[in-house]
Amino acid sequence: MRVLRVGLAQINSTVGDLGGNAAKILEWTERARALGVDLIAFPEMAITGYPPEDLLLRSRFIEDNLAALNQVVEGSRGLTLVVGFVDRGEDIHNAAAIIHEGRVAAVYRKQYLPNYGVFDEKRYFQAGSESPVFEVAGVRVGVNICEDIWYPDGPCRAQARGGAEVIVNINASPFHAG
């Protein structure tokens, strides 16, 4: 029987505290390693904090976010991590890094960008279009972000058709307790 031990690290990232957020991710990665976890998932934009809003207009902030992600990669050996960050190509993307074997093995870019209430993602990000599937401990896994899971013809369906047995959806929607 195949067993995939999944850890969910609901860390409280601080918007703009890239170094502090990376340190939290590494701390929880060590805890997961000690518990024998195969895959640990962190929230949407765990590196930058959510929502980073106009910090995204500073190119240095994007570069520093990528440097913080590299710090996490260096401390990830022996585990698979799903870490929310801001990816940069021609445009910027709300993304999840799939870190495996000490490297970024794949990047998922959020496809459905919310633009209502407190959400203004279309102002900053371009939508992704690919729905990768990867393998951890013999189990095929798809990753997507927040709103992507709500659409019946969205990335979940593409990932299921691509052989995903498990879908990991990372999220950082604001909330109020009490």
TrEMBL record:
CDD domains: GAT_Gln-NAD-synth. The keyword Cytoplasm does not apply. GO terms for molecular function: glutaminase activity; NAD+ synthase (glutamine-hydrolyzing) activity; nitrilase activity. One of its GO terms (cellular component) is cytoplasm. The keyword Transcription does not apply. GO terms for biological process: NAD+ biosynthetic process. It holds the Pfam family CN_hydrolase. Residues 4-178 form the CN hydrolase domain. Keywords: Ligase. This is CN hydrolase domain-containing protein. It comes from marine sediment metagenome. The lineage of its organism: unclassified sequences, metagenomes, ecological metagenomes.
